[in-house]
Amino acid sequence: MTPTIQRALVLSVLVVLMAATRINHFAAIPDASWAIFFIGGFYLRSWTRLAFPLLLALAVLIDWVVITDLGIDFWQHYCVSPGYWLLAPAYFAMWGGGMLLARGEQQQGASWRLLPRAAVLLVASVAVCHLFAQGGFYWTSRNVPDPTVAGWLRNYAQWFLPYLGTTALYTGLAALLHVALAQGRRLGGGQHIRH
Questions:
Q1: N or C, fewer C-beta in 10 Å, the chain?
Q2: Cβ proximity of 122 and 168 under 8 Å
Q3: What's the N-to-C CA distance of the chain in angstroms?
Q4: pLDDT tens, residue by residue, 115-173
Q5: What is the pLDDT of residues 20-35, one digit of tens each?
Q6: Secondary structure letter of residue 194 according to DSSP
């Protein structure tokens, strides 16, 4: 399989995963968006100019379709504020974390030794992503009548672990699959996925 086909396959899987999980943010299946951008940065870093804007546009499109399908004007929905546009740098923080992890994997190869670096990068990426996403909502939303630094810090802390947990779950599953495939390729003499 050529690197282009590999990347196209990864991008297709990420698009399907976003469509399947973002449609209902509060459904039984949690939204995988943050993990999708981290995984995308890892596998698609050479396609950043194509894949990142495509996934970002897909996220906005899904939000718009879901909200307007409810009969609500997009800009009147509870979750949408002027800070909504801070999702672009928020998601790029996730993408950048994935890119940094890919650089480390190229140097060390796919192995369990990369796990501590992956954990640190994932936590740092989620922290920065959450700073933009949650901060954008908190400081610009009409639903927060009297924003304060103390209130913002409380809100940030309240939502950080749930977002980290969901992102870590999806990213961990992707990591397990990645390492298993890499081990299988080594045993079978196959080609490694290029980033």
A1: N
A2: yes
A3: 14
A4: 889 999 999 999 999 999 999 999 998 888 899 999 999 999 999 999 999 999 999 99
A5: 999 875 556 899 999 9
A6: P
Round to whole Å and give the CA distance between 67 and 74.
6
Task: Say if residues 18 and 36 touch (Cβ distance below 8 Å).
Answer: yes
* pLDDT at residue 79, rounded to an integer: 81
Please report, as a single letter, which amino acid is at residue 153: L
Distance of CA 191 to CAs 4, 26, 162, 181, 184, Å? 13, 39, 36, 10, 10
**DSSP states of 56-119 as a string?**
HHHHHHHHHHHHHHTT--GGGSTT-SGGGGGHHHHHHHHHHHHHHHHHHHHHH-SSGGGHHHHH
Cβ(190)–Cβ(55) under 8 Å? no
The C-alpha atoms of residue 133 and residue 158 are separated, in whole angstroms, by 14
C-beta separation of 55 from 14 below 8 A? yes
